């Protein structure tokens, strides 16, 4: 295999561990826990895994002759930097417990468990993937583990391989399912434990015991490198507004973190838009206002960050999309009528069949986007929100707004745009020192929890703004993070998604600064992730954590 | 100013210089030179700056009491990483000659010289910009210095500021103009020297004496970082083909270099397309063939690199675009007729008014692209080739082709696409060690050439695959790079653009490997630029240079 010079050097990196994990580990049980809400419902649904104590690791005395443990590991959902280090952490952890321990990787995500597709992860394989990005060691997948028949198929292979435990590395949904699986196996007394690990670049799986999900640090560093480079270009050429969309369908943590790192002129935060019930027109006015005011200073350039999920947080757009979904639902009478129309007549017809408010919004959209909303639908006839090029939608609407302002004498300037969308660029980057250390610690923690017979826990490594040796490792029952939410018409126990807190310190700092950043140019250029330099450059984690823990 | 942790540490970096520049410098004159072609014409046009000798620097004896020199510096055209280091190299160079020397920066590109907009670059300003990316220290611009009145306006301010010389940092066009300016001032005996520095991320300003233009190394490293990350994502998720367009309107050096670094499945090289007179259909067939063959192995994913300038290298597209330009020229009868038509009838009408061959090509285009070709025109009515989303054009056509192949039983697989365009992401990155050193050396070299009274020279630093101390610095007369070419209907002396050599070692290696890279997955993941690690990781320059110098 031809590997890069950096990869060769980086393979040698030994991830840092919390002090408590370096030698022998003692488990300290804390108080019994309860779920964050809907305690009675959750307790009823998880009789075997509810109320378990928090676990904290401390330095302990070496235990001898611990039995070998066999573990199966699953990567679930979208890639996040550091997944390979979680796996190498598990591997080193179980091998330290007993050299006869074995690690199996299920291939292509949770589907691999159900379909009995796996590979044994030997030292040779693990060594090839230490400190690398991607999930390619065993692949990932989006199959949801939700049905009992899947659990039973999983148990078959677990028994065949003599597995003590499964480790599921995933986001909020995957960890919810991991918990259901843990409960199911516990109720059956099946002898297979389930441990979760908190993964997602979106940063929306976090709480008191899970300070951040892994991958968020690295991904936002890559995006911030690129945003910084583009800002420097904008400030050198002084002729473009760069509208940059950032991956992440629900929360705006990525945009907020990148804003704190790079200080762009505009950053939209979906949670704020929803909270203030902003209209698309209001958002466009806000952006055009900043463009116009910068133009007064002769600055016909700038950078705007836009969260991918914005559209669904704008109340009137949510209503419009839901009306369109009903109107164009597959097989409906209205859909048939729509399809009979000439293409050039369709948008007018659609507007005529919406409520007045939605018709107004629909007509305000650039025609290309309006057409896209009626054409690009999924097999159920639903608008595919992820295909909407929100950055171009806003760019075109800001342009139209500025033209009106120009006629009214409220704007003198030039408005040229460049569009970018960053997502795939960062999901598989090689992990930063922080994510390399954090992930390795999460994996190592999982091995200790398993060795101690725990199930229904998530690996927890806290105190993350301190040096790694001072991190606090342990386990937190997944049920503590749960509440009941409506999903597809039914109430279900799920892990609460952590949206951007409008009362939280990171957001409040951003709000206190954004006016300044908008009108003057205070760009910061973070540059690329460094692996070998001074600790101030290489080991720091996110601004979000810094503010949250301050 | 709020600067990033990396920027703070990176400011301390002392760029490496060739041995000959560290102490006192001796200039050694080589043989007289001639232009690369059209010698008589060039000699006639440049009587004062033609035939000058090559200059090589060697270690010399310290000269005392050298007079102060005043220099004006101009950044011309698109940004490239390292521009600030050229300027700090000039600054340190002239200050070493005499502490009373002064450096002025003309603002916003060549236009600053004509409009007399400048700033004195003091040590305090220079120190803020050492080893940083961007051209924001004085800004850049695209004004062309071509007219005598501009030269005369420039001379006025040069005399006002008592300048000994101008240093013009630019690409082939800007250096051509620098040479014309040098000749003009020499003919007038104006007492102002002109020195050029070879800049462009495109890598198309190079020859025997200019082994590479600055910025190419850093920009291709940034793009390769991103391509590598995307490849790792493709190989983890195994569900998308990523079509990545890379900036650069003429040569495909960027695509070739990135391919050598990352080993993607498909890389299109514009020069090959032109040489083989490939049709759009042939290119699409080539791409679809690779997609289909990978699908046979179950690999429904991959990465394809596409040079931004491709369209203009496809002979039939060039003809089509030229016919469209004539047909829709502003004010023409055909344009009037076109404008009267209903939008839905236009493409059919256009096809009817093209030659048969062009009509066939036009009809083969996805309708959105066809429409774009007739609508997005510049003020002269010309098709704006830069607006064509070549990556989407190819993605859609490959998809259509695969659907046909599927019906014919020649393809079984899924084809999902993600599109990317990288350009602005890399033009203002902080320079790699190579570019930081190379640029600083180019600037330092310029100061020595100026101090020795030279004009019409370009800074030349060679032997670049060796450690910096072994680099060979000196000067090369710009006229050596010139030939006569038709520009806007007239023969003009211009620096020959260096396209990808189809007989050159980098391209030949690529061709010998691309089949393997296409069908098996041999992705390489270069990772981000490192500034502090082992020399193998931090100091190496491009694969292109490695192969060219091997």
From TrEMBL, chains A, B:
<dbReference type="InterPro" id="IPR000023">
    <property type="entry name" value="Phosphofructokinase_dom"/>
</dbReference>
<feature type="binding site" description="in other chain">
    <location>
        <begin position="424"/>
        <end position="427"/>
    </location>
    <ligand>
        <name>substrate</name>
    </ligand>
</feature>
<feature type="domain" description="Phosphofructokinase">
    <location>
        <begin position="70"/>
        <end position="330"/>
    </location>
</feature>
<feature type="binding site" description="in other chain">
    <location>
        <begin position="200"/>
        <end position="202"/>
    </location>
    <ligand>
        <name>substrate</name>
    </ligand>
</feature>
<keyword id="KW-0460">Magnesium</keyword>
<dbReference type="GO" id="GO:0046872">
    <property type="term" value="F:metal ion binding"/>
</dbReference>
<feature type="binding site">
    <location>
        <position position="172"/>
    </location>
    <ligand>
        <name>Mg(2+)</name>
    </ligand>
</feature>
<dbReference type="GO" id="GO:0009749">
    <property type="term" value="P:response to glucose"/>
</dbReference>
<keyword id="KW-0418">Kinase</keyword>
<feature type="binding site" description="in other chain">
    <location>
        <begin position="247"/>
        <end position="249"/>
    </location>
    <ligand>
        <name>substrate</name>
    </ligand>
</feature>
<feature type="site" description="Important for catalytic activity; stabilizes the transition state when the phosphoryl donor is PPi">
    <location>
        <position position="199"/>
    </location>
</feature>
<dbReference type="Pfam" id="PF00365">
    <property type="entry name" value="PFK"/>
</dbReference>
<dbReference type="GO" id="GO:0005524">
    <property type="term" value="F:ATP binding"/>
</dbReference>
<dbReference type="GO" id="GO:0005829">
    <property type="term" value="C:cytosol"/>
</dbReference>
<dbReference type="GO" id="GO:0047334">
    <property type="term" value="F:diphosphate-fructose-6-phosphate 1-phosphotransferase activity"/>
</dbReference>
<comment type="pathway">
    <text>Carbohydrate degradation; glycolysis; D-glyceraldehyde 3-phosphate and glycerone phosphate from D-glucose: step 3/4.</text>
</comment>
<dbReference type="InterPro" id="IPR011183">
    <property type="entry name" value="PfpB_PPi_PFK"/>
</dbReference>
<dbReference type="InterPro" id="IPR022953">
    <property type="entry name" value="ATP_PFK"/>
</dbReference>
<dbReference type="GO" id="GO:0006002">
    <property type="term" value="P:fructose 6-phosphate metabolic process"/>
</dbReference>
<keyword id="KW-0479">Metal-binding</keyword>
<keyword id="KW-0808">Transferase</keyword>
<feature type="binding site">
    <location>
        <begin position="239"/>
        <end position="240"/>
    </location>
    <ligand>
        <name>substrate</name>
    </ligand>
</feature>
<dbReference type="GO" id="GO:0003872">
    <property type="term" value="F:6-phosphofructokinase activity"/>
</dbReference>
<feature type="binding site">
    <location>
        <position position="78"/>
    </location>
    <ligand>
        <name>diphosphate</name>
    </ligand>
</feature>
<keyword id="KW-0324">Glycolysis</keyword>
<protein>
    <recommendedName>
        <fullName>Pyrophosphate--fructose 6-phosphate 1-phosphotransferase</fullName>
        <ecNumber>2.7.1.90</ecNumber>
    </recommendedName>
</protein>
<feature type="binding site" description="in other chain">
    <location>
        <position position="308"/>
    </location>
    <ligand>
        <name>substrate</name>
    </ligand>
</feature>
<comment type="subunit">
    <text>Homodimer.</text>
</comment>
<feature type="site" description="Important for catalytic activity and substrate specificity; stabilizes the transition state when the phosphoryl donor is PPi; prevents ATP from binding by mimicking the alpha-phosphate group of ATP">
    <location>
        <position position="173"/>
    </location>
</feature>
<comment type="function">
    <text>Catalyzes the phosphorylation of D-fructose 6-phosphate, the first committing step of glycolysis. Uses inorganic phosphate (PPi) as phosphoryl donor instead of ATP like common ATP-dependent phosphofructokinases (ATP-PFKs), which renders the reaction reversible, and can thus function both in glycolysis and gluconeogenesis. Consistently, PPi-PFK can replace the enzymes of both the forward (ATP-PFK) and reverse (fructose-bisphosphatase (FBPase)) reactions.</text>
</comment>
<dbReference type="InterPro" id="IPR035966">
    <property type="entry name" value="PKF_sf"/>
</dbReference>
<keyword id="KW-0963">Cytoplasm</keyword>
<feature type="active site" description="Proton acceptor">
    <location>
        <position position="202"/>
    </location>
</feature>
<comment type="similarity">
    <text>Belongs to the phosphofructokinase type A (PFKA) family. PPi-dependent PFK group II subfamily. Clade 'Long' sub-subfamily.</text>
</comment>
